[in-house]
Design goal:
This protein is α/β, with parallel strands linked by helices and 584 residues long. Helices cover 29% and strands 23% of the residues. The structure holds guanosine-5'-triphosphate, sulfopyruvate and manganese (II) ion (MN).
């Protein structure tokens, strides 16, 4: 299939290590899809869903101990620990190759190795990168087919000498004691064993397009970010694009597919990407973004006709569902879907479930994998090799207290500080406690492939190079009241906040200066047709000085952790914020 000698030599070497019974090179054809799907149905990797109601859709159950990314088993393997930094797990590369080599040795005996070449980024884009993943998981091969441009297209792009990321994956025995997700940035290599789940196993996504790509971006002068990209078309037909970084399960897919409320007629939303953005400086001095992916690996629970009709429409065909509940008619269900819960179903563990059951029917991190091209709001520009120009960058987390609905930073440096001091309550997207506030700079804490201090300096440095930098904002859709309910309706109504952001980018839109940044005046947000309690709105836009003092202390603790790699520009921003809060 290829005359790329380095590629075939590497595949041969990995075959000698993993000792599969068979090796299958994936070409991405429809015929191959049919074959692999039939194999997956036979092996039990996939279960067929109702082909009348959900054509081309299948269900996958992962192992019970393999339902989310395992950050504590994820390593960056650089020659020195300092390059990896204090926020990542580190393993010396030699030790990592030895330890994982022992586990990979013979791991594919009795199994098939799929050689899966794919492109991250639009075909013919100079920004795109090729990855070749070797995997013993049919589920992984079929997922990659949906979320990237897989097969011949990638080998064509490689030619005989092109660069590619070497990604080796085996389910191993799925025991967490023998699970490792290791990144070798200096070798452009990823080795992952012991998991078949999402970000641990679909190595083009978080492992390559964020961890490895962030290292490439630093060397080559661009940014690989955990960001959605969305276009907002106004009633005059003008479209502006924004990129937004929120941590896992904090609303990227939903914002990327937002449906404008009926009370704001004439606006249209265009989805470019829902999870990852690669951002470069264009010839015009603006920042341009591409979505390296070709599909969505989205959170299922909470997706319904009201919250995200576009996602729901996207997943009606050619989609793989992971760890959702199965209804008697072989369609799917999850918590937060429209209508009453089913009288009975099989839960994500494949066990009988009724509304009286104590546990959830779908796993909180259950997901759908669906082609981006099926999304009703997909942007006509989504595969533009040049990307789309970014007017605003938005940071945001899940914070029940303190952080206002929206604020604007004073300039690029202050904006980077706002991103660097982001924090969010943890979610089910990673194994571990849920609801604990943690510092998560740019929503990249689990995804930065090098020293976080150097990463923040890279962001500062980019500001000097971008002639027309986007304005930087912060949002929080998740503020709650005394009753624990969300104060802001969220979802489609988030457009109201986006419109203020775009107004500000055009030098319009009233704002008040506060110590933390510029906040909309109460009448600055377009609230037409929205029934929101004025008291709730006051809380949403209020800067509580005592709460911000605690915030400052926690920011300081985090910055201190980065030691001498911490950007002095950002420590100065911290001191300046402290001063502004004192003077207020
Ligand atoms: P990853 O794929 O893990 O990176 O997640 P994501 O950032 O794309 O998050 P997603 O849009 O899938 O949303 C995660 C959860 O947050 C879902 O349960 C949503 O229903 C909920 N959510 C999203 N947007 C909003 C919002 O504006 N308000 C509220 N209250 N909840 C939201
Ligand atoms: C996330 O956790 O941010 C995801 C899902 O988008 S995963 O692909 O598993 O990383
Ligand atoms: Mn994500």
């Amino acid at each position: 299939m290829t005359n790329h000698q380095k590629l075939t030599a590497w595949v041969d070497e990995m075959v000698r290590l993993c000792k599969p019974d068979r090796v299958v090179w994936c070409d991405g054809s429809e015929d191959e899809k049919r074959r692999l799907t039939a194999d997956a149905l036979r092996s039990g990797d996939l279960e067929e869903l109702n082909q009348e109601k959900l054509p081309g859709c299948y269900l996958h159950h992962s192992a019970l101990n393999d339902v989310a990314r395992t950050e504590h088993l994820t390593y960056i393997c650089t020659p020195t620990k300092d390059e990896t930094g204090p926020t990542n797990n580190w393993m010396e590369p030699g030790e990592a190759y030895r330890t994982l080599g022992g586990l990979f040795d013979g791991s594919m005996k009795g199994r098939t190795m799929y050689v899966v070449p794919f492109v991250m980024g639009p075909a013919r884009s100079p920004f795109s990168k090729v990855v070749v993943e070797l995997t013993d998981s049919l589920y992984v091969a079929l997922n990659i087919r949906i979320i990237s441009r897989m097969g011949k297209v990638a080998l064509d792009m490689l030619g005989e000498t092109g660069e590619f990321t070497k990604a080796l994956h085996s389910k191993g025995d799925l025991d967490m004691a023998r699970r490792f997700i290791c990144h070798f940035p200096q070798d452009n290599t990823i080795w992952s064993i012991g998991s078949g789940y999402g970000g641990n196993a679909l190595l083009g996504k978080k492992c390559m397009a964020l961890r490895i790509a962030s290292c490439l971006g630093r060397q080559e002068g661009w940014l690989a970010e955990h960001m959605l990209i969305v276009g907002i078309e106004n009633p005059k037909g003008e479209t502006s694009y924004v990129a937004a970084a929120f941590p896992s399960a904090c609303g990227k897919t939903n914002l990327a597919m937002l449906v404008p409320p009926a009370s704001l007629p004439g606006y249209k939303i265009w989805t470019v990407g829902d999870d990852i953005a690669w951002l470069r400086i264009g010839p015009d001095g603006r920042l341009w973004a591409i979505n390296p992916e070709a599909g969505f690996f989205g959170v299922a629970p909470g997706t319904n006709k009201k919250s995200n009709p576009n996602a729901l429409a996207t997943v009606q065909k050619n989609s793989i569902y992971t760890n959702v509940a199965l209804l008697p008619d072989k369609t799917v269900w999850w918590e937060g879907m429209d209508g009453a819960p089913p009288e009975k179903c099989l839960d994500w563990k494949n066990e009988p479930w009724t509304p009286a059951s104590k546990e959830k029917a779908a796993h909180p991190n259950s997901r759908f994998t669906a082609p981006a091209s099926q999304c009703p709001s997909i942007s006509p520009e989504w595969e533009n090799p040049a990307g789309v120009p970014i007017t605003a960058i938005i940071f945001g987390g899940r914070r029940s207290q303190t952080i206002p609905l929206v604020f604007e930073s004073f300039n690029w440096q202050h904006g980077v500080f706002v991103g660097a001091t982001m924090s969010s309550e943890t979610t089910a997207a990673a194994i571990g406690a849920v609801g604990v506030v943690r510092r998560d700079p740019m929503a990249m804490l689990p995804f930065c492939g090098y020293n976080m201090g150097d990463y923040l300096s890279h962001w500062i440095g980019m500001g000097d190079k971008i002639k027309h930098p986007p304005k930087i904002f912060n949002v929080n859709w998740f503020r709650t009241g005394p009753d624990g309910k969300f104060l802001w309706p969220g979802f489609g109504d988030n457009l109201r906040v986006l419109l203020w952001i775009l107004d500000r980018c055009e030098g319009r839109g009233p704002a008040v200066k506060t110590p933390i940044g510029l906040i909309p005046t109460p009448d600055a947000l377009n609230l037409t047709g929205l029934n929101i309690d004025p008291e709730a709105l006051r809380t949403l836009l209020h800067v509580d000085r005592a709460a911000w003092q605690a915030e400052l202390d926690d920011q300081k603790t985090f910055f201190n952790k980065l030691g001498d790699r911490m950007s002095p520009v950002l420590t100065n921003e911290h001191a300046a914020l402290s001063q502004r809060l004192r003077n207020a």
